[in-house]
Amino acid sequence: MRSSPRTTPPRRRLAASVASAAIGLLALTACSSGASSSDASDGRIHLTMYQQWGGGHEQAVLDRLIERYESLHPRVEITETPVTNNAKILASITGGDAPDIVDLGNSLPLGGWAAAGALQPLDRYIRASGLDTSTYIPSAMRAMTSNGKTYGLPFQVFTSGLIYNTKLLAEAGITKPPTTLQELATDAAKLTERNADGTITQMGFLPTYPGPDQGQTCPLISYGYAFGGGWTSSDGTATPTRAANVAALTWEQSFFKRYGVANVQNFISSAGSYLTSSDPLESGKLAMMFDGPWSVQYASDNRSAAAGDLRVVPLPASSTAPSRAGSTYVDANAQVIPTGAEHPKAAFDFIKWETTNASETASFSDTVGNIPQLKDTPSFALASDPQFAKYIGIAKSANARSWTQTATSSNYGTQLCEAQDNALLNGQSATAALEAVTGR
User: Fold this and answer.
1) Which residue, of 20, 217, 220, 363, has the greatest Cβ tally within 10 A?
2) Which of the 8 DSSP states describes residue 370?
3) In 3D, which of 241, 188, 212, 433 has the Cα closest to residue 329?
4) pLDDT tens track of the chain, all 440 residues?
5) Which has the closest alpha carbon to 120: 143, 144, 162, 150?
6) 78: phi then psi, degrees, rounded to nearest 5
7) DSSP bridge partners of 257
8) Quick check: 10 and 213 in contact, CB under 8 A?
9) How distant is the alpha carbon of residue 345 from its chain centre?
């Protein structure tokens, strides 16, 4: 399989990991007991990397990339280890056994870890090496900065678009994808089928699927942007109760009020597992879905015939904010250097090569199915696929939004997920749910 949702683990689980280790971060020192070493016997620099691609084919692709770097730099040896638990990574750092490099699955912990002193700022290495950060997709690079400093370099980007089933739309007499979120809701009603008892057999659109329960980010974040809102002020202060944010959550809530919370929940629970041939999109039970390129790729592998009916467009904006079309959340795998890394200069040399090498980036994207972090790369096979190309365009859009990194940004994301649940599942008003979000 070319892609995986591992790039966007649930905010809730990630935030819990950050909170559990916050106290230990305060005791960080710059020493290390030797997670990496320069062995005097062979004169080579030994770097260790904790990576969150996990195992399987993605690890194999990463290993091949490392081997090519080592062939160009024979004095450097890199040992990568899958460590997907953020608490374990922080324990290594606080325990004085920091790896040289951490390949984070996304940027969500970056602000909190930077504020606590767990990460080294990279600005001096960037200046000394002459790295031109404007070669990266802007939204991806913005996610690597906190409090005016750069703490990571982006590698492989992920974002979402509106996937729609052309066959189901045609059967409902709908000739084109929706152009506003209000039109999307209207089309969704035409595409939803229910039994006499209210049981949903087909849904037009489900605003919360996939979401944190399926390993994805909270969709409310993107909907807030699409309604003309935003989640922080220019100085990073949380702004959850902006009128447009409340409107976005109210719009989500309308789907649950129309069909009933229990009926929607039963529809989700009765569907097959996400990214399998029986999941709602692939089985034809969900006509439209807000998700990333991995969904289209999995569908191609699992149900090639059904996948032929799938098309992608940028997420429409609200009719009240038409200029916000395509305003979706964008993130990247953050390549960071922990405090206490024994060979930070050598580590930076590797992550600079990894993230700026256009041919390596194209090869990795083509095999794994994520979007290149660079504005320009050589042509690769997957980029010629019209639907994948749509996602590349979404990521490069001026309306692409990255999460503002602050000391509490990860926890803030968790609170927004909880607000979404409180409004949609527990019947709280959108205003009250967002008023309860502190952003701290």
Assistant:
1) 220
2) P
3) 212
4) 233 333 333 222 233 333 333 333 433 433 333 444 455 467 899 999 999 999 989 999 999 999 999 999 999 999 999 999 999 999 999 899 999 999 999 999 999 999 999 999 999 999 999 999 999 999 999 999 999 999 999 999 999 999 999 999 999 999 999 999 999 999 999 999 999 999 999 999 999 999 988 988 899 999 999 999 999 998 899 999 999 999 999 999 999 999 999 999 999 999 999 999 999 999 999 999 999 999 999 999 999 998 999 999 999 999 999 999 999 999 999 999 999 999 999 999 999 999 999 999 999 999 999 999 999 999 999 999 999 999 999 999 999 999 999 999 999 999 999 999 999 999 999 999 999 999 99
5) 150
6) -120, 125
7) none
8) yes
9) 28
Rounded-to-integer distance, Cα 44 and Cα 367, Å: 31
DSSP, collapsed to helix, strand or coil, labels residue 155 as strand
Give the residue from 83, 80, 81, 84 showing the smallest Cα distance to 14: 84
C-alpha to C-alpha distances, 207 to 79, 130, 225, 369, 390, nearest whole angstrom? 41, 44, 14, 24, 20
Which tokens is 214 given?
A: 């399926």
Q: How far apart are CA 32 and CA 47, in angstroms?
A: 13
Please tell me the chain's helix, strand, coil percentages from 3-state DSSP, rounded to the nearest 5: 45, 15, 40
**CB contact set of 406 (below 8 Å; sequence gap of 6+):** 111, 112, 115, 146, 147, 232, 236, 412
Closest to 15 in 3D by CA, of 122, 121, 90: 90
What single letter denotes the amino acid at residue 177?
P
Tokens standing for 392? 């590349």
Distance CA 230, CA 94 (A): 34
Residue 79 amino acid letter: T
Which ranges in 275-408 belong to alpha helices (H)? 293-302, 304-307, 344-356, 358-368, 386-396
